[in-house]
Design brief:
single chain; about 130 residues; about 0% helix
Length: about 130
């Protein structure tokens, strides 16, 4: 059974940085596309970035483009989301999810991802 575990969330001041991690177990990362999603209180879950199973395709939502960087370490079965220049509106619960053979040719749709982590909370506040 594929499992995903996120970590790295926390409280950060505006303009600060965080690096979220998503560790996969139960299968090889190279079999899956990985999406990062966030959900703010009272809002729908939105896809903000993804990386394809090959690592060659990457997408970012306009709201995070230029500030967030997705990367992966296949040796450690881990996907990262480096978050820079954080804003209060980035405050949300952040989730990673996996889709088998995901191509990441567009922003990730949460309805298409089967395997989810438990989430990690990010709060951007002074």
């Amino acid at each position: 059974q594929l499992q995903l575990v996120e970590s790295g969330g926390g409280l950060v001041q505006p303009g600060g940085s965080l690096r979220l991690s998503c560790v996969l177990s139960g299968s090889d990362l190279t079999n899956y596309g990985i999406g990062w999603f966030r959900q703010a209180p009272g809002k729908e879950r939105e896809g903000i970035s993804c990386i394809s199973w090959s690592g060659r395709n990457i997408q970012y939502a306009d709201s995070v483009k230029g500030r967030l960087v997705i990367s992966r370490d296949t040796a450690n079965n881990t996907v990262y989301l480096q978050m820079n220049s954080l804003k209060p509106e980035d405050t949300a619960d952040y989730y990673c999810a996996a889709i088998l053979s995901g191509l990441c040719r567009r922003l990730p749709d949460p309805n298409l991802y089967r395997f989810w982590g438990q989430g990690t909370q990010v709060t951007v506040s002074s």
